Each structure stands twice: as structure tokens, then as C-alpha cells.
Amino acid sequence: MNYFARLLCFSFFYLLSTPLIKADSEGVALLKKVDELYRSSSSIATMKMTIVTPDWQRTLSMKSWTIGMEDTFIRILAPKKDYGVATLKKDRDMWNFFPKINKVIKIPPSMMMGSWMGSDFTNDDLVKEVSLVEEYNITTKNEGKNMRLILIPKQETVTVWARIEILVEEISLLPIEQSYFNERSEKVRVLTFSKVRKFSDRKIPGIMTMTPLNKTGHKTVIEYVAAEFDVPIDKTVFTLRNLKSRF
Fold first, then answer.
1. Could you tell me if 181 and 188 are in contact, meaning their C-beta atoms sit under 8 angstroms apart?
2. What is the mean pLDDT of residues 75-104?
3. What is the pTM (predicted TM-score) of this model?
């Protein structure tokens, strides 16, 4: 057997032994569902965020309002020392309001990957500055009863992630795990989804846990206490005036 015949034979058996990877409309549709899972056309939710480190732990209660992928408003309700701190995102602009100093601070694009309120979630995680569907090329891979979405940033996408992988349960189409990789293909952090609950006629994982793999003993847990989807929301919620209001 000559070299080219051996190469062709090897390639054939390699393809047979490798799980199917494909780039198609199915992957795009599934990612869109994951992308909008906690937002839909609109949403109002009450959540608890618990930040855990080896030295301390604290819990924040907060309420969020969203319209599509464009507008987000988050206000902290407890503890007392953080009461009234708020975040507003309009399109790709983002601001934080700190009532103790009565000051609004605009978050520059360079800070979108910075920590939100000292948690392991970034500003971008909380307000979804970009749509994964629009900013990443998507392929899918079958893994038994699950599907893995492999996201590679498009050439024009500005991100610190070289790759994102999302494991989705094939029957429910709900996410199980979301992993983030750096340019050296090292897994940097993992977001896990658990405790599926029904909110407003929709089943979603009620708990999301972000674990940074380079910080031992650190994690941040977001628990959904209540959530409504596809509800009318006054657009004045997403204004700088509302951001600075004391309630």
C-alpha cells in the first residue's frame, strides 16, 4: 500500500472513531435558547448571590429586570450596607450607581471582564453585553444523551476566551455545564447549572455556580428565588434617572 492509500485509510478510520462535529442551524438554534434562557423577551427575577472564599462568605439579595439581550437593570436589596447599589446596561453601555457616595460610574469596555460586586461573575456575565450567537462560531458534538456546543470567537469578537464549551441535556435542552478556556486551551473556570425548577411556566436551572479553577476555595452561587418571563416592563426602568433613584 503506497503512502497516499495509507493516509486515506487512516483518515477514514479516524473519522469513524471521532464523535461527529458539525456546524449547522441546529447548533445556532440551541445556543440561542441557552443564550436567552434567563431573559426571554423580558424578565423580572429575584435572586440570591452567595460569594464564597477561603476566608469569608457573604450573600446579596437582588432584583433584576431585562428586555431582550439589550437592556438590563439590577438593584441590590440586601445586606443593608449594599442596599440600593444598582447596575444598568443599555445596548453596550453599562453604569453602576453607589448610593453611599451618590455617584454613577460608567464601566468602560476594558472593565467588562472585571468582577461584579467582588463575585466570580464578571460584569459581562451579569448583563450579557454580547450575544454568544452573534459573537461566536458554533459547532456541536454528540455526547451520549447530551450535546456539547463548541464556541470559537469570530475574528472581530473582542474577548479573553479562546473557546467556550456548553454541555446541554439533549431531551430538556437545558444547560448542564459551561466551561471557559484561555488561549493556551486551559480550562479557566466552570459554570454549573443545577436544581431545575419551574418559574412562570418555564423550567430553568434554579442555581448557577461559577467556580474559578485558578483560585482554590472560591466560588459564587446564584439562586433564583422567583422569576417571571415575557411580562410587560416599563422602559423607564432602563434609564439613568431610575439608576440614581432612591427607593
1. yes
2. 94
3. 0.85
